[in-house]
Amino acid sequence: MTLSPTPRPLVVLDCDSTTIQDEVIELLADAAGTREQVTEVTERAMRGELDFAESLRERVATLAGVPESVFEETYRRVRPTPGIHELVAEVHARGGKVGVVSGGFHEVLDPLAQDLHLDYWRANRLEVADGKLTGRLTGPIIDAQAKADALREWAAAEGIHWGSTVAIGDGANDLKMMEVAALSVGFNAKPVVTDFADVAIEDDLRRAIPLLDRLLETP
To answer: Is 170 annotated in the active site?
Structure first.
């Protein structure tokens, strides 16, 4: 009997409160003195009560005037989620790829991607002028549809079959990419995500590693 080869997985994660323990917009808001205002809007958006793009613009507007040195300062405060290094290593050991797609910001995700040895990453960009944040975004907004599109794009680029795709997230903005993945995993997720996901896990991303074996069952 010839055994089927182990599938090469593509695992795509949300960033804030999934790949990392923090919400980067809230860390940035600390520098602007708007943390409380931003946190309330973030929570409503994560529960699906607000349009993501609208809520993002509202939160980013509070950052106007903050010096761009805030990016380096913020990255030093970022805490990778327990188990993320092990999950990335396991996916790579299986010949697969790991991507992070974020409603947060490239200015913090870029160094994180290097440190975690990610294969793909995508996020929003903050506009800077004269060394300070303008309170506006530049380029396309990475919303729920953009997250789903990224998963499809990266799978196609790697020649990875749909049946070997995994999406991991925690908020309403992750639902569309979870819908298109073969396996959807809620991580410390909001109720709307836990109810939708194929599997819900908490606290440690190493708990996602055994789930990769489920991909073996997909034709």
So the answer is: no
Which position among 16, 22, 119, 174 bears the catalytic label? 16
- CATH number of domain containing 141: 3.40.50.1000
Along the chain (219 residues), what's the average pLDDT of each consecutive run of 10 residues?
65 97 92 86 77 88 93 95 98 97 94 98 96 95 96 96 96 94 96 95 97 73
Please report, for residues 61, 128, 178, the alpha-carbon distance to residue 125 in angstroms, rounded to integers and kept in the order given: 13, 9, 23
User: pTM for this structure?
Assistant: 0.91
In a domain, 53, yes or no: yes
Q: Is residue 195 part of a domain?
A: yes
Domain-embedded: residue 3: no
**How far is Cα 211 from Cα 195, in angstroms, rounded to an integer?**
18
Does some domain include residue 1? no
Cα–Cα distances in angstroms (integers) from residue 160 to residues 76, 102, 152, in the given order: 34, 21, 10
Q: Which domain holds residue 194?
A: 10-217
Q: Which of 14, 22, 170, 174 is catalytic?
A: 14
Identify the CA nearest to 23 among candidates 94, 132, 108, 114: 108
Please give the biggest Cα pair distance in the chain: 66
Our count of domains for the chain comes to 1
Quick check: is 16 catalytic? yes
